[in-house]
Write a structure and sequence with these properties.
Layout (H helix, E strand, L loop, with lengths): L25 H9 L13 H26 L8 H14 L5 H9 L3 E9 L6 E13 L3 E5 H4 L4 E5 L5 E10 L4 E6 L22 E6 L7 E15 L6 E8 L11 E4 L4 E8 L12 E5 H7 L6
Antiparallel strand pairs: 1-2, 1-4, 2-3, 3-6, 4-5, 5-6, 7-8, 7-10, 8-9, 9-12, 10-11, 11-12
Amino acid sequence: MPRPAVYSSSRPPRRPAPAGPDATAAPAVQAEAAQPPHPPHASAPLPRRHLQALWAVVVLLSVLLAASLWQNQRPPARKITQEDIDAAVLRTLETTTPPSAAARAADAIAPSVVRVVGYGRSKNGKEEVERGVGTGVVIVDKGTILTNLHVVLGSDRITVTFHDGMETTASITGAQPENDLAVLQAHKVPDDLEAAALRSTQDLRPGDHVVAVGFPFGIGPSASAGVVSGLKREFTSPEGKRQLSNLIQFDAAANPGNSGGPLVTLDGEVVGIVTAILNPTPARTFIGIGFAVPIENAASAVGMPPF
């Protein structure tokens, strides 16, 4: 027959009750009352780094709040009107002096103007001497240059100096004696060489403004402004060796050294090649009449089609 299971009790054993009728649970109550109550747990202080982080958050929130209030109080930006733009343009025109039309024309043609020098031998044949100084204009950006034939004729060596200061030798590749024109090919050219813009003379009229750019007496590049004085003029050189026709007459100052340089409109477009000045005295200085070969004749010298 199986034995009944015996369980151990987790309760502490009971103390025997004291004898007597008054012996009740009072001693137990007094024992419990005699025990002091558990003190409440005191909260530990926050670490220093936590306090610093808390203050940083408070400051950041304050700054964001202030920025939001300032943004809301700022008046909206005023829309720019056409009247504002017109007023600004007018103010700029009143306070700024723009370059003249002649100055703009000279700036436009300047990158295409070159100084041309022809060299020969001295009388004893031992030294190289400068025979003449003139001007040329680049009409093809690979280094094709127009100038006057009398500037380079008979030279043993020709040099051209470009707008950026680069100097190189050049060869004559074509000539048109009836118009006193020569075509040069530079042996080296700048990387950013610019060719001049050419313009037909069909709509050119006396009184139109023009600018002559060149190296008068080797000084330059120099610019002088004037007007077209006439068309289809004829000119005979003082020596009687050159007879030129169909010329543009102009009054912009030109002197020895301007020969071969461009005569341009106020747009900076070439309408002629300066070739001669009229002076009835031996002084060879300008007295108010210059001549230029029309660009149509000059372009035909290099095989360029007419306009």
